[in-house]
Amino acid sequence: MKKLDLFIIKSYIGPLVLTFFIALFVLLMQFLWKYIDDFVGKGFDMIVIAELMYYASATFVPMALPLAVLLSSLMLFGNLGENYELAAIKSAGISLNRIFRPLVFVAILVSGIAFYFSNNVLPVANQNFRTLLRDVRQQKPAVQIDAGVFYSEIENYVIRIGEKAPDGITIRDVMIYDHRSGNGNTNVTVAKSGKMEMSGDKRFLVFTLVDGYNYDENIKSQQRMNRNTFPMQRTHFQEMVRRINLSEFDFKKSDNAIHRNNYEMMNMSQLVFYRDSLKADLDSTLGTFSKFVIQDFGFLKVYENVQKDSTLKSKPIPVKVRDTLQQTVSEMIEIDALLPGIIKMPKSNNPSIAEAPAEVVVESKFDSLNFNDTIIKNFKYGDALRIVNNALVGARNASYTSDFTAQNKDAKEKLIAKHQIEWHRKFTLSLACLLFFFIGAPLGAIIRKGGLGTPLVMSILLFVTYYVFAIVGEKSAKVLAMSPFFGMWLSTFIYLPLSIFVTYKATADSPLLDREFYVKFYERMVSRIPFVKS
Fold first, then answer.
1. Most confident of 96-100, 252-256, 361-365, 496-500
2. Which residues pair with 175 in a beta bridge?
3. pLDDT on residue 369
4. Which of these, 63, 119, 68, 26, lies nearest to 467 by C-alpha position?
5. Cβ 179 vs Cβ 152: under 8 Å
6. Which of 188, 231, 371, 516 is exposed most, by the fewest CB atoms within 10 A?
């Protein structure tokens, strides 16, 4: 039995390693096609490109490893079934469960390695990859000056070359604008011909110009003679050498620490720490909001503090005060959803409305405070106007504070959800490897087709479906449409019954994908239809 276990393990390890690197290579080629425009024409060394590819390949392991487990399991048991080796082993009295046993330990080992990788290696790889990719994308293209074009990619210089010889060095009709003084086109060099070469260390662009002029209108040693006179120096030369510094085109690596606090660059303990800190900050934000909302509606206490015997005077309300009060109450009606009561101003039947006091009725929604329905008219004009103004200001402040706090709360909850998503991702990768083994191995024993044909099609179909469910769950969890737990485990919950089903069918020797079984089943069902029999 040990020889059989060793034979099964050896037969499995080869396809597993092969399919893993094939999947990794395919994903890496997809990455290259996506970012090819950021690499071409920038003069990167092979070391930089190789380093970027290395970190990129590490970030693709969570996709390549489960696919490799699924494909290699299908290939192994498909080959064993197609070559009748599986039938021979079963004829010796060895069950399929016993054949699976050594590979179950291998799958558990692979899952453990995947968990260690996602918790310890992947955060560092993500951090280095993001930093290096950012530097590569921000790198300026290598100097490439074409004829007849004003080239301005070099800082503080604009260069135009009329003609360029086939050797790429000899140039004619040269014009160089020097903007280092910051005063515009005050320093211009023109030449009939010359040479354009890079220095040996590629840090300088060297122009050897022949038969030309230099025009300089920014001479520091001279001063303006008067308002209408400016100094200008024209220098003729037979040969001049201009060296332009290209240090800005040197590739510089940023510090990896700029992405250190990103949730994708953390292990489990760091994610738990930052998640708890964010939750505490959210609780503090909500507590502060509750405190200030109570302060915003503090004007309600005015109703209790003002004496009830402060009644309206018999003299008419001044028109200016009355109009201000009516306008303020009208503004409050527009935002009545934020007010403690609905304010109404009925029309008066008194024809001398300009001289009669306006009646303001407040329908209170706070029964606990025992408001009077006509409480406003119990106050003097100034007190009534102050109460309504304070209510309006408080309602506006509460509205602004509520909107800002709601947006802040939503952003913090989404950030907390992202940390929880990354925490669950550490487990979903390892569990996906184990899950795909219990799908691929039984399915391979059922279909009995080896090679890269049928197993590859089945693997891609199953993996793409799994990945779609995983993306849907993750996106839904990030926008708080699902809980992070359910969103990250959605694809696992869907595929777990499938793995149990195919494992049961394989161990029971069920003809799940046998064409003859379905043909006979169809004929048996058709034969039971009365009019078909006749």
1. 496-500
2. 160, 190
3. 39
4. 63
5. no
6. 516
